[in-house]
Design goal:
Elements lengths: L1 E6 L5 H15 L3 E6 L1 E2 L4 H4 L7 E3 L8 E9 L2 E2 L1 H8 L8 E8 L8 H14 L3 E9 L5 H12 L3
Helix pairs in contact: 1-5
Bound molecules: flavin mononucleotide.
The site of flavin mononucleotide (FMN) has 21 residues, from α1, α2, β5 and β7.
């Protein structure tokens, strides 16, 4: 399969997980390409205040059979740049989509759970078929185990 991983990551945590999934997918013989979402101002401290936001790179999902979308939690919400990307109505209609977020706190209920629900709704509103979601609690002692489980689960096609 041709799988696109569409990622917004500011400090690299989310990207590092996406790269592990990409490696696993490629080892299984899939084509797996990471496409970054970029904006003119990527600093999450500032772009949350910048209501106009401007995406400079909005990957086209069309070529892919399936998609994995990923972004961090910022202020108990999905990172604004990923929100802006989904608001730009990329062509997700009918695409099977898997989603994950990374966040700082050790427990999913400290922002991760509500953010993944928000992510799920925004993708579904775009017509995507959301088939799996996950949260990585970055300061959890079980982080590496959580990542390994996510990589394994998201690499099954
Ligand atoms: C402005 C800002 C707001 C954040 N808000 C939250 C939050 O509400 N809850 C949380 O658990 N982590 C929060 N974080 C931490 C990030 O979600 C976490 O470090 C994430 O793994 C960063 O992903 P990245 O390296 O891919 O950018 C915040 C980070 C920044 C910079």
């Amino acid at each position: 399969m041709n799988i696109g991983l569409i990622v917004y990551s500011y400090t690299g945590n989310t990207l590092s997980v996406a790269e592990k999934i990409q490696n696993q997918l490629q080892a299984q013989g899939h084509t797996a390409i990471i496409e970054r979402v970029h904006a003119s101002n990527e600093d999450p401290q500032k772009n949350r205040l910048d209501k106009t936001g401007s995406l400079t790179q909005a990957p086209d999902p069309l070529p892919y059979d399936a998609l994995i979308l990923a972004a961090p939690v910022n202020g108990f919400s999905l990172a604004k740049i990923m929100q802006d990307y989904l608001a730009s109505r990329p062509g997700l209609a009918g695409k099977p989509v898997r989603l994950f977020v990374t966040h700082h706190f050790p427990k999913a209920w400290l922002g991760g759970s509500q953010t993944i629900r928000q992510f799920d709704k925004l993708c579904a509103a775009n017509g995507a078929k959301v088939e799996a979601t996950a949260i990585i609690d970055w300061s959890s002692k079980k982080r590496e185990q959580e990542i390994a489980e996510l990589v394994n689960r998201f690499s099954q096609f």
